[in-house]
Design a protein that fits this description.
Number of domains: 2
CATH class of the largest domain: Alpha Beta
Strand content: 25-35%
Bound molecules: zinc ion
Number of strands: 18
Shape: globular
Order of helices and strands: EEEEHEHHEEHEHEHEEEEEEEEE
CATH superfamily of the largest domain: Zn peptidases
Oligomer: single chain
Number of helices: 6
Helix content: 10-25%
CATH topology of the largest domain: Aminopeptidase
Radius of gyration: 20 Å
């Protein structure tokens, strides 16, 4: 595997930044922004990406803060950051997908060098740019029509020692919930955080934000979780934050609640809510405003994501609901 070429723009202390160019011909026109922070002493490498979904602005903002944080505090090892992965979608505010091939990169890991643009990009990022990272961190949260709880995803593999390390990394975040995907689950695959552990690599993915709006609490959530990972790995010795304020409720998976019709949905729940089995999640109407039934919780659980735009399409993934134990 070749490393991406770096076209340097500037340096300041331990920090350097510029644009990444990948060798694969499908990516010939792509210029990705990067930050590198490299300490004098050797140590583990962190790889951090944001902006796979380029309206998820809290994650992208946190990436900028993390650049400054590690430039100030890094004692050993290195941190590499891509603050906007989906550059082709950034200035057109593309929702969920990369406009070059219409694919959602979030479900394409581990990537495919023989595939289309997004598949090649995911492959190049995971296997070239982040090839030697101790941890791959993927920051997300709240595209234009959605709101997510503050939660973290990580994948269990059945290797107890490896999983314990992954779990410890995920729990560095101060979250509503930690999704420790069960090793035998098959309904949530294709995220980098789902696929890298099967290749022997640690990965965590954080979600926090809503509607493309900057939210100081969600920016802090992303920033502090990654800063905590840096300290946990011994890369930094900055002051740890005060005690946790959230619960890190552990769940093993989540499912989708889909829109039963195309029409209007008047939601009665929000991300982070707990619901009972059969509880009404919202009321449905057709486009004339006539009642078309209710959306009910298929089981008790914790709501991790809601689409909060009232116009919905039949079959659309509206709500992520994590079953709660007990
Ligand atoms: Zn996202």
């Amino acid at each position: 595997m070749t490393s991406p070429q770096k076209q340097l723009i500037g340096t300041r202390g331990l920090l350097s930044w510029g644009t990444l160019r990948f060798a694969h011909p499908a990516l010939a026109d792509l210029h990705l922004p990067y930050f590198d922070i490299v300490a004098d002493a050797p140590g583990p490498k962190l790889a951090i990406i944001a902006g796979m979904h380029p309206n998820e602005v809290d994650a992208m903002e946190a990436a900028l803060r993390l650049k400054a944080h590690f430039a100030e505090h890094l004692l050993k090892g290195s941190v590499s950051i891509i603050p906007v992965l989906n550059m082709p979608g950034l200035f057109e505010h593309a929702e969920f997908v990369c406009p070059i091939d219409g694919k959602n990169m979030n479900f394409l890991a581990p990537g495919d060098p023989a595939g289309s643009f997004s598949q090649v990009l995911v492959h190049s990022v995971l296997h070239e740019w982040a090839a030697h990272a101790e941890v791959f961190i993927d920051l997300h949260g709240g595209d234009l029509r959605e709101e997510v709880a503050r939660f973290v995803m990580c994948q269990m593999t059945g290797n107890a020692e490896f999983d314990q390390r992954t779990r410890a990394l995920a729990h560095q975040f101060d979250a509503d919930s930690i999704v420790e995907f069960a090793s035998d689950q098959t309904s949530n695959r294709g995220r980098a955080t789902n696929e890298l552990p099967w290749l022997g690599r640690h990965a965590v993915m954080a979600e926090g934000g809503a509607n493309g709006v900057l939210d100081p609490g969600c920016i802090e959530f992303h920033f502090q979780g990654v800063a905590n990972i840096g300290r946990y790995l011994g890369l930094t010795d900055d002051q740890a934050p005060a005690a946790r304020r959230r619960n890190n409720v552990v769940v093993s998976n989540f499912g989708k609640v889909e829109a039963p019709i195309s029409g209007r949905l008047y939601l009665e729940v929000a991300a982070g809510d707990r619901v009972a089995a059969g509880q009404r999640l919202g009321r449905l109407q057709d486009i004339y405003g006539d009642p078309q039934g209710e959306l009910l919780a298929p089981h008790a659980g914790l709501i991790l994501m809601v689409v909060n735009h009232p116009i919905v399409n039949q079959g659309e993934w509206l709500i992520s609901l994590a079953p709660l134990p007990g």
